[in-house]
Amino acid sequence: MKRIITVTVLNQSGVLNRVTGLLMKRQFNIESITVGHSEQPQISKMTFVVHVEDKQKLEQLLKQLQKQVDVLKVNDITEKQIVVRELALVKVLSPPTLRAEINSIVEPFRAATIDTGKNVVTFQVTGSPEKIDAFIDLLKPYGIKDLTRTGVTAFVRETQIVNSPQLSILH
Amino acid sequence: MKTSVEATEQVYEEPEMPEAPKQVNGADIFIQTLKKHKVEVVFGYPGGAVLPIYDALYKNPIRHILARHEQGAIHAAEGYARVSGKVGVVIATSGPGATNLVTGIADAMMDSIPLVVITGQVATTVIGTDAFQEADIIGITQPITKHNYQVKNVEDLPRIINEAFHIASTGRPGPVVVDIPKNMATSIFDTTIDIDQEVYLPGYQPTTKPNFLQIQKAAKAISTAKKPLILAGAGILFAQGSDQLVTFAEKYQIPVTNTLLGLGTIEGEHDLFLGMAGMHGTYTSNMAIQTCDLLINIGARFDDRLTGNLNLFAPNAKVIHIDIDPAEIGKNVPTEIPIVADAKEALEALLALDIPNVDTADWLASLNASKVEYPYHYKADAEKGLLAQQVLELVHEYTNGDAIVTTDVGQHQMWTAQYYKFNHPNNWVTSGGLGTMGFGFPAAIGAQLAKPDAQVISVVGDAGFQMTLQELSLLQEMRIPVKIIILNNRALGMVRQWQETFHEERYSQSLFMIQPDFVKLAEAYDIKGYKIETFEDAKVQLKEALASNEPVLIDCRVVQKECVYPMVTPGTGLHEMIGVKPE
Fold first, then answer.
1. Between B138, B147, B326, which is nearest A69 by CB?
2. In CA terms, which of A50, B320, B374, B381 is 20 to 30 Å from A125?
3. β-bridge pairing B115-121 and B175-181
4. In the predicted model, what is the mean pLDDT of residues B79-101?
5. What is the DSSP letter of B575?
6. Which cofactor does it need (chain B) (predicted)?
7. Which among B326, B346, B373 is the end of a domain?
8. Is residue B414 part of a domain?
9. What is the CATH T-level fold of the domain A2-76, as seen in this structure?
């Protein structure tokens, strides 16, 4: 199963290596990983998507991460209300004859054109990984020359849906 | 003339000047910090990158044991740490010095032995340039250490050493590597910096106090169990909770079995003790695990050599698992009642309760009958020669179970675990998790340094001994009375046994056609050597050798074709043991 895990770490040298090394040692498969500073100095946040076989393996993963001295907090946020975002840069063949057509396809995705050449256009698109997958699928027939994705980063929403039925208007 | 000159000669006196503040460098501060941590002995080997550290050690001495190979140094430190309960300190130089420590670091990690390992490193200015004797020891040791550090500013040095000692010795103990680049050791240290700063590690807060609700749940499970069983592991030894374990077991009359590393938590001849469990444990212990309805694991990690086939393990048992490392709980065996705590504190919390209705009389009666029915067994035959088991029974008899015993890995280790019954905790030093050949002999040296008055016996195989025998120099030098017993079967015994059992007797590369004369070898190091070939000789010579105040090497020529039994073969359950009865 696919899980989204956020890890808050002390920004020591080698901490990324520690975390990825641990995942490798325990045979976990990382699909994507993003790292950046958090709102606090000296503290960074990592978001990674991993594939785990079952609940027991997942528990192991969380506990092993928590055991690292430089790791402050580990959260599996897969089942929470979250915002998941990824950014992709897509360079696509776009001869002038087809440009209008491509632009009309791209428009609903609210992708930005960040570079234009004679026959190619580079789009920047952000959103959930599924949205980006769809975006790429649609552009594929035109010929994608280059593609890079950042991997997901995620955030827990301020309001969480409680499992029991409630009458809040917020959701 | 002469006298008048002397009379007029003026004596030049140096004017009194206020003493300039003495400059100290990183290396000096490092030694000072070690002293602050009351380090009495360090094990090491000098080299280029640690010259400043050895220079500081020369000026401000701590007892240093100069091993003949870094691996010997670190295994000695492991033995020292295991027996003393203190942190073992090792120093080696960069590059090959550091990589020679890797086996020992991994060994300490697997068996939770507290070590602070100092490695030299090339200067920070050339790190990453493939400089002479450079190795990325931080990268290399990251998966096999509890934590590791590279000192990048000399001001951080005392803090890092303080943290290293704290991390190594608290929670689940383990090895911490501190890599000190040469220019950090020579940099001038600003002495206004407090070297006693308190350790602040927000990401490292081991839980030692058990959750009371969980303790109550455990108590309830114990009160409803008909066949409870305690599996006592080395976590109890690290927590110094052996007394509490025995009190608890006696109070509720719960039988106890041990992991390999847990031997000594309860007296080997205690009525409630069933013997070691696992691959070469007693049939009674293994059947107790398979039939118990409550398995109370205290400080053990359900290693595969203990559990056999996990799918068949303890099928009827509810599992309570007390461990200071939360990641061990539920790793291999699903656990109904997890308790994250120091073993001693958890036992004390359990002892504080009065658990009603614990009646194990029938359960104990059946286990006691099993103990009588299925003891360890071997068939002595004077015609065929001396057996390792006979030697070990004699060793036990002559030392009354009071000796510190160290081993490598393999047949001799299993036989020692089976036949040496320990009276005291922390007297058993063996390489369990990593299974390191060459561990036992240097570990015995460390153990003897930790307990100079104790009898220390290193039981080793002829193959493992040859991996670290260079440390005989240490015995020659220090004259410490370590007794080396080589169970010499001219083979890699356990490899040979598996080849016999699982590879149709194809003894691929496991038999030694040529061997040194171990007695002569000992004599070359000015150590008395004995060669024992018969049981009759063993009775006389072993007694004499063990009574000596000097280091001694005893080469016991034992039967090569002997196998360790009983045995849980790979892939089978604990109840499917073979060789439980003599043929």
1. B147
2. A50
3. parallel
4. 98
5. G
6. thiamine diphosphate; Mg(2+)
7. B373
8. yes
9. Alpha-Beta Plaits (3.30.70)
Average pLDDT on B487-491 reads: 97
pLDDT band at A39 (very low <50, low <70, confident <90, very high): very high
Query: E-assigned strands of B27-107?
Result: 41-44, 63-66, 88-92
Note whether A8 and A43 are within 8 A (CB). Answer: yes
Q: How far apart are CA B509 and CA B506, in angstroms?
A: 9
What B14-19 contacts at long range (C-beta under 8 Å, 24+ apart), as own/partner pairs, is: none
For residue B407, which phi and psi values (nearest 5 degrees)? -145, 170
Tokens for A150, please give them: 């950042």
The question of whether B132 is a catalytic residue gets the answer yes
Judge whether B515 counts as a catalytic residue.
no
With 0-12 / 13-18 / 19 or more C-beta atoms within 10 angstroms meaning exposed / middle / buried, residue B250 is middle
Exposed, middle or buried, B132 (CB in 10 Å: 0-12/13-18/19+)?
exposed
Domains A2-76 and A83-154 share a fold: yes
Residue-level pLDDT at B6: 53
The alpha carbon of residue A67 is apart from the nearest alpha carbon of chain B, in Å, by 7
Co-location of B431 and B546 in the same domain = yes
Q: For residues A4 and A84, is the Cβ–Cβ distance under 8 A?
A: yes
In a 10 Å sphere around its CB, with 0-12 CB exposed, 13-18 middle and 19+ buried, how is residue B565 labelled?
Answer: buried
Mean pLDDT to the nearest integer, B326-331? 96
User: Do A60 and B152 lie within an 8 Å CB cutoff?
Assistant: no
Give the model confidence (pLDDT) of B120-155 as tens digits: 999 999 999 999 999 999 999 999 999 999 999 999
Q: How many CB atoms lie within 10 A of CB B261?
A: 28
User: How confident is the model at residue B1, as a pLDDT?
Assistant: 46
Q: What span, in angstroms and rounded, lies between the C-alpha atoms of B98 and B117?
A: 9
Task: State the pLDDT at residue A34.
Answer: 94
- Cβ contacts of B146 on chain A, cutoff 8 Å: 69
Cα separations (Å) of B564 from B96, B119, B531?
37, 40, 23
The Cα–Cα gap between A96 and A91 comes to: 15
Residues with Cβ < 8 Å from B56, sequence gap 6 or more?
B25, B27, B28, B30, B31, B185
Q: How many domains does chain B have?
A: 3
What distance in Å separates the CA atoms of residue B512 and residue B174, rounded to the nearest whole number?
Answer: 36
| Residue of chain B with shortest Cα separation from A22 | B143
pLDDT digits (tens, 9 = 90+) for B434-467: 999 999 999 999 999 999 999 999 999 999 999 9
Q: What is the pLDDT of residue B10?
A: 62
Q: Give pTM, 2 decimals.
A: 0.93
Domain of residue B346: give its range.
212-373
The Cα–Cα gap between B92 and B72 comes to 11
DSSP 8-state symbol, B434: S
Is B418 noted as a catalytic residue in this protein? no
**pLDDT tens-digit map of A116-125:** 999 999 999 9
Residue A126 structure tokens: 């952000």
- Which of B316, B350, B373 is at the close of a domain? B373
Q: Is the pLDDT of residue B4 over 60?
A: no
**B258 and B176 inside one domain:** no
Q: What sign does the dihedral B532-B537-B542-B548 (CA atoms) show?
A: negative
- Chain B contact probe: residue of A9, A25, A52, A67 with most B CBs at under 10 A: A67
Residue B503 or residue B10, greater confidence? B503
